[in-house]
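Task card 7
Instruction: Convert sequence to structure tokens.
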Amino acid sequence: FCGNHEAARNTAVICSLLGSCKEQGVNPREWLTDVIAKMPYYQKPQNGENLKKLLPNYWRKQESNDSLINV
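Output:
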């Protein structure tokens, strides 16, 4: 189906994350665009940011809070 075990695992992770977006009512394109843009910052060890914040359920809360602040 995917060619090898690693590709199958990667596909499963992506499908799971996109399924989480759907479950949380998050636009997958907006989420993915934002997460890809933030990844270089989150990968720096000195910043102390937790990758968990980028998961769709936490991202949605963060985005709603940001929109309230910007109003």
